[in-house]
């Protein structure tokens, strides 16, 4: 692979956003070019990075998924507030090879502007099997069925942009350039393939980290220019700890939720599924790097307790002479990137603080594994026929959940349908209204489990609200559950 090519935006599935929109995604195995190297992948519409779907609040979207793969597949609209039933964000749907599934997505009028993503969520292990002890939906007859890990790992994910988060910013920033940065990691086999229909991907194996499907591309900015970067971890398992050398990020949106208190950050921890909309500012002419820092997901990766990842440059940023919008203070700064702007909050669309709200119920979710291929929630492997809790949640109520991780590796917990507010991590209170739809639950240390306390409000949609670890191999092998949500009596 040849590094250094100019960064290209992912292709668009649509640019216009009429009141009623019809689009099609075709899932197909195809050879793609990764920075000069030809690689076999599973794609949407022939692109390793799925085309970006642009939607607006109040819109009716008809999305047709045509399956030209050799395995059944489906779609999940990660982070979107959509019904988990019928032909909306229903992961019980399974699209056989040769079939077309039509999804009907009614984007809520109050859907927050920001960055979301879509991906396969087929709930089966390879070759029509469920893992021992797991109860899954029946596999389609005479059809191969590869699970979520295999399909996302082979390329099946793309970005959703709702509205434009720049419109939530002060007027000076509403016309700035916006970039989409889709992060994916690929394990390229000796036969130049990232399709593993019969094998299990291993997050600890050597991986190539890509930005918009490119290897170490180059983004060019003008001296003093401020841009909005929409950054999404659209990979199957691996976390990123992002740093923009010499600079800061101003976080204005997290997991599609406008910030109640925008903050400057020197690095961004991004477990699988995490999205940030951030402001960045170029300094004087020169260059720098966006990289993921070295990090561990457990106390002893060498002995199987978590994984360890090296410091890896992701994208070069060249700053050229020009009259950017950051003012003389930025252009007089260090070469490359510099301190990003400070933005006052709360931004329009940010969520209210739930910490003082009365709670209808408290629940406990315990994450654990055996260090091998069994991953449990509350001591049980996923059972498609039984909810994790016998007692349903009720629309209009607020609940508090305590997430406890007894394992020796971090587990990123994701909830479908709605975001949640993180109250504390290992007993440390978190910023007010820090909402997200996924949180990394820290691993146990010296026998003391990691613990995260969250609150969420159940609104609009009854049905099965799924939750799971978003290391997709863990999800595929048991670390998943659901809660029935019912209407108020």
Task: Classify the secondary structure makeup into a structural class.
Answer: mainly beta
Q: Main beta sheet: strand number and arrangement?
A: 7 strands, mixed
Rg (C-alpha, Å): 21 Å
Helix content: under 10%
Provide the CATH superfamily of the largest domain: Cupredoxins -  blue copper proteins
Number of strands: 34
Low-confidence stretches: 126-136
Structural write-up:
This protein has 489 residues and is mainly beta. The protein has three domains: 20-162, Immunoglobulin-like, CATH 2.60.40.420; 166-338, Cupredoxins -  blue copper proteins (Immunoglobulin-like), CATH 2.60.40; 361-486, Cupredoxins -  blue copper proteins (Immunoglobulin-like, Sandwich), CATH 2.60.40.420. The chain contains three helices and 34 strands. The longest helix has 6 residues, at 148-153. It is globular. The relative contact order is 0.14. Mean pLDDT is 92; it is low at 126-136.
Write the layout of secondary structure elements.
Layout: E1 20-34, E2 37-44, E3 50-55, E4 60-67, E5 76-78, E6 100-106, E7 114-119, H1 148-153, E8 157-162, E9 178-186, E10 208-211, E11 218-222, E12 226-233, E13 240-244, E14 249-254, E15 257-265, E16 267-270, E17 275-282, E18 286-292, E19 295-296, E20 308-309, E21 312-320, H2 328-331, E22 337-338, E23 361-369, E24 375-377, E25 393-394, E26 398-405, E27 411-415, E28 420-425, E29 428-429, E30 435-436, E31 438-441, E32 450-457, E33 463-469, H3 472-476, E34 480-486
Parallel strand pairs: 1-4, 3-8, 9-12, 11-21, 23-26, 25-34
Antiparallel strand pairs: 1-2, 4-6, 5-7, 7-8, 9-10, 12-17, 13-16, 13-18, 14-15, 14-17, 17-22, 18-21, 19-20, 23-24, 26-32, 27-31, 27-33, 28-29, 28-30, 28-32, 33-34
